[in-house]
Known about the structure:
Layout: H1 2-83, H2 88-98
Helix pairs in contact: 1-2
Amino acid sequence: MVADFVATEFRLSALKSKEDAVGRVRQQLLQSRHVQDQLRVFEARDRSVAETNFELVANWSLMQIVVMIGVGIIQVVMVRSLFDDRSAFSKVWKYKVLS
Length: 99
């Protein structure tokens, strides 16, 4: 009877240690899931910021290209008007220079 009691205590002790190990593993899995959820939220926020920045940079670059093309066209027209007496800008140049 004492041997049965000792064997039962040993089994209960082994069962308790296994329950504790399962509990620790469960707690570590919950912590891992929490960290993964946080990383997922950070990634979604960072991706949204990156996409917004990409759109802003693309729009700003497009505007700069349009402005540069417009300035180039104006410069070509103005330089041509310096050498062409029939252009409308030529009269403006001559009026400003003579005044």
